[in-house]
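Model it.
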Amino acid sequence: MTAQLSDLLQHVLAGEPALGDEVDAVFRQAELIRRRRTRLLLTAGAVIAGAIILVGYLLTTTLLPARGATPAATPSHSPAPMPSAMSDPVLRVIAPIIDGQGMRIVPRPPERGLGWRQYSVLGHDGRLRGVVEVAVYAVPGRLCFPVPGEESDCATAERAADGVEFVRYDDTDDPDWQVNETIARRTADGRTVAVMAAGERGTGDAAAGRPALTGAQVRQIATDIRLISAFGPHEQCNGPAEGACPVFEVPVPTSG
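Modeled.
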């Protein structure tokens, strides 16, 4: 071998293992390459698996409702009818006030007659909160609004809108029977109504037996001109059906 050829081969064989260890060196290099490829494959697999889990999570939380979540209610243009939407025109005057307090008012047997109505009020828990009674009378002459315990005296009436005069009779001292009552009269024709809200009797507890309507609310109902108009023109509790009419704590005088 010439010197020039030896120099050329020296450059080619530079970095190669010694001739005696070339077989072992080849196997070691192959093992190193295999390990590198294995690490790359494992890393790529972990990245792909993580990407799949992330995409699945995003799809689940974005497109599907949360577990236990209540589906959004579909807006309704026709709300459920409240008791005030019932056909009884007397109840249409009373019920909005009861509805506004989260309670319900329903006919109470015996529920009605010529010139009178009777209703039960149910509280938030469904228990009876007492009774509301309404009656209409014909009093064409001057009405002497009674003074409880003083038969010869007349109470001074207050005046409301639409030519209605009224007197309130509220008695909540007796825990067994608390009453808020108003007598109101339309001065144009003498049509008179009595409205009484009483707590459920027999509770023996002032809080449990409190009427569902306050004295001011009973006055509001009694002086509402729609209440008198809700009764038929021939309905009156001082007529033929007088014996079936409700008994008020303060009775309405039937003569002027």
